[in-house]
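User: I'll paste a sequence; please echo it back and then give the predicted structure.

Assistant: Echoing your sequence first, then the prediction.
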Amino acid sequence: MREIKFRIWDYRHKEMWEWDNMCNSEEDVQDLLNRRFSDLSPAMQYTGLQDKNGQDIYEGDIVKGVVMFHDDLWHVEGVIKYNHGRFVIGKYNCPLHKFSNEIGNKNNEIEVIGNEFEHPALLERVE
């Protein structure tokens, strides 16, 4: 069973609210609640997976790497999205679980290189 956690981007203050920051103390919760909802992105869910460096992978993360998909090696670079009940890598619509089942396999190495909010230039490149 995967851990359930979220993060939220604050457009006005240009900062990411991680799960721990949202629930760490009563002051943090109050600070988040005092912000206008129009300043906040929709919640981005943790995929339950980590990249090759041990970094948690969330919706909205931009990843790149090599995955084995349909018996071929694919060089992928895209945004993690939730689509039809699964997390996928952007325009490839490559299911994220396809590489996660074989972590440690050199054919399946993926890395978080940014996210769509803090690194918009990367987003333009991969979309």
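Residues 100-104 have pLDDT under 50 and may be disordered. The helical segments are 19-23, 26-34, 97-100, 120-126.
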